[in-house]
Amino acid sequence: MYTLFIDTHLYDINVVLYKDGNVYLHKCIDKSVNNNALLVPTIMGCISNIKFNDIIVVNGPGSFTGVRTGVTVAKTLSYLLNIPIKTVSYLDIMDYSLDCNENLVGFYDNSGILKVYTFDEVTVGTKVPSMAMKVTGVYNNKVYYKITFDNYYTISGGDLNLFKGNQGVASGTISTLGSVNEITGSIDISDCKFNTGDEVSLNLYNIKINVNDSFDPDITYRFIY
User: For residue 217, is pLDDT > 70?
Assistant: First the structure.
């Protein structure tokens, strides 16, 4: 029994052919090439002279164009070959691969793509939050930001660094006490010298949750000054 697996949800394309539950053939297309145009030829190369029984395709979360391409190709093959198709979330795939001491942490980068990482659980019973960070404006010699969480958490602190290129130029801290699902604040840049077009990045790390626990999401939001 052969199963075709298609994953185009983010950067690389992965096409895997399983035989009786084991990897029979695996092709990966790197992001640096025009990978969408190579998806169908890659699949055809994998399934040549092979009659497969079903298709599994990753339906996100991830790049809208990437997910749409993979799902469209999978549905077309399913229709033409009259074989069943199944969808699976990338979050479920990662969840199956974790041990009991790990958690998933997801955040949207400045391109709007949800990226998911694994973090060791700090304390048994502590839920690691999914979160997103965004720079909301630059004015009055300050960089304003907003951090949102997937639920309400007791936040007792956090650290921020501002970079011009690879050079650290300013820093700040998050000092919010109490249960919140959104934090807004700013970093003073009055002592920094920026020119129009400079690449600036805001880095968030060492979030303290539930007063005594912390985790390090290491999220960076890049923007042009």
Answer: no
